[in-house]
Structure formats: C-alpha cells, structure tokens
Amino acid sequence: MNTNKLTEKQKMLSGQAYQAGDAELAKERLKARELVYEFNHLAPKFIKQRKELLKRLFGKTERMFYVEPPFRCDYGYNIEIGDNFYANFNLVILDCAKVSIGNNVFIAPNVAIYTAGHPIHAYLRDQEYEWAQEITIGNSVWIGGNVVINPGVKIGSNVVIGSGSIVTRDIPDNVFAAGNPCRIIRQLTDADKDYYYKDFKLGE
C-alpha cells in the first residue's frame, strides 16, 4: 500500500502513523467539541436532549444508554456502545481509533480510554506524529473509578476492573482484574452471585 496517497484521516483509522495537525482532522475534532460542549452545558433536566446529542456524536448507540456530564472525546464517530450502557462523571475517550463497547457495561467516574499514542523519540513527536489502536470492551463489564485503558487493549465479557487500574494488556472473560499494570486477581464464578444473595438479601 502506498501510504503517500492516503489522507491523514485514512492513516489514523488504519493504525498507521499520522499527523494530528491535519486540517481535516482538526475540523472534525472541532465539530465533536461543539457537540460535547452543548452536551456538557445542558441543564440536568434535559436528559432527552443530551441523549440526542450523543446519538449525533457516536458512531453507534442502542436504545438504553446514559452518560453523566462532563464527558470528553476526540471525534465521537469512532465510539460504539451497546445496550444498557452507563458512564458516570468525567469519562474521557480519545477515539482516534474505534472504541467498541458491549451491552450492560457500567463505567465509574474518572475513567480514561485512550486509543491514541505518541512516539517515544522526541524528533517524531515534535512533528505531531501519532498512532492509534482499537479498544474493545465486551458485555457485562464493570470498570471501576480512575481506571486507564491503554491503546490496543481488549477486555472480555463478564469482567470487573478494579479502581485505579492501568490496563496495558488484554483481559480475558470472567475475571476480576486490578493493579498497575492491571493483572488477573481471580476468576468470577456463581459463588459471587450467591454471596450477594446471602449477605445482602437481594429481592427481600
């Protein structure tokens, strides 16, 4: 592939090095920021209006979702969320590459999801080169407060990520993972469900 014929946006979306100062990308970031600004400054009672703004901003939404303002993103169109999605205050998604989020995902406050990266060597970084890798989050995932998810990470389904974790590598299904760097602490089983029924008397 001759990368000289690709636009900076095409390079970004294909995972190649690109220059973020490109005029087309700058225009798209500005458009996203206008929608995000409007979203973040609506009065709390305007729930329906905020939802409509996110439908315009995100690449894909389902019937049930709720995002607490303030929220920040780069482009918006690279974000895809599943049904029954909830994000608490101060979610940041740098969506230079696609961010795919499944059904029944709960995100605690101050979570950062970063697809974007920069060269370690200052010579290339000073020329505004960047790169981006997709992030995938499965179904029925709970991400604790102040978690950072780094570029290229895949988080499986039925996963809990402990508060303050820095997720630098893939996390498989059905585990509780935490730490810096984030690592598997243990498997999640039906015993965890029994614990809540026994000690918290759910449904009574």
Automatic annotation (TrEMBL):
This is Acetyltransferase. Keywords: Acyltransferase, Repeat, Transferase. It holds the Pfam family Hexapep. GO terms for molecular function: galactoside O-acetyltransferase activity. It comes from the Bacteria. InterPro entries: Hexapep, Hexapep_transf_CS, LacA-like, Mac_dom, Trimer_LpxA-like_sf. The keyword Transferase applies.
